[in-house]
Every structure is written in C-alpha cells, then in structure tokens.
Amino acid sequence: MDDPELEAIRQRRMQELMAQRGMGPQQNAGQQQAQEDAKREAEERRQMMLTQILSIEARERLARIALVKPDKARGVEDVILRAAQMGQISEKVSEEKLISLLEQINTQTSKQTKVTIQRRRSVLEDDD
Q: The pTM is what?
C-alpha cells in the first residue's frame, strides 16, 4: 500500500525487462530463478496487502470463490487493491461489503446463458 514499495516493484520490473531485451532468448537458470523469486515475492506482498485490507470472513469468502473461479477472484482482488491504493478504502472490507462488490461486478459482467432445444422428428410421424 506504500508508494515507495510500489515504486521499487516498478523499478525492479523495468530492470528485468531491460535485462531480457539485452540477453534475448538466452536466459540462464539463474535469471529464471530470479524471475520466479520476484514473482513469488510480489504474490506474497499482494497477499499481505489483502490480509491488511480484508476481514477474516471476507478473506474466507474470497478464497472459496478462488477455488471455483480463480480469474474472477483475481479480478475482485485487483479492484480491492486498486481502491485501497487510491485511498477509497479507509477500514477493513467486511464480508457484506465484499458481497456487494461481487454483486456489482456480476451485474457489470453478466453473461446471458441461452439454451436451445432441438427436438428430433420421429421417422413414423407424418406431419406432411
């Protein structure tokens, strides 16, 4: 949630991109390990920020959603983190607030499911 922390992540990412362009496809195992470590560290930092922002019940609900729809849970996490970084969240997000946020996202991204039933005509039927 701190701006210096975010700036450090951006600088590290820029260094990684510059190193990739300089080296091209000839990455050695050390560079790949460093990239994996950076990804793991960024994910740990993300989870730590979420534990600070979400209440215990909200984290449990989000974890259950992540089991079923990981992409949707990731999107909700992104929305919450962005709101926290902009200062729109002043207190911990309760389960009720998370539910209302999920409902808002569902109405924005609702997909209409359409089922069509095609009936087979029997060979013995004579409708002609």
A: 0.58
